[in-house]
Amino acid sequence: MIKCEFENGNKASLRHLVVHAIVIKENKILLEKRASHLLEGGKWALPGGFVDRDETAEEATLRELREETGWTGKVLQLLRINTNPNRPHEDRQNIALDYIVEPIEQVGVGDQEVSDLEWFSLDNLPTADNLAFDHKESIELYLAYSNSKLK
Question: Is residue 2 in some structural domain?
Answer without folding.
Answer: no
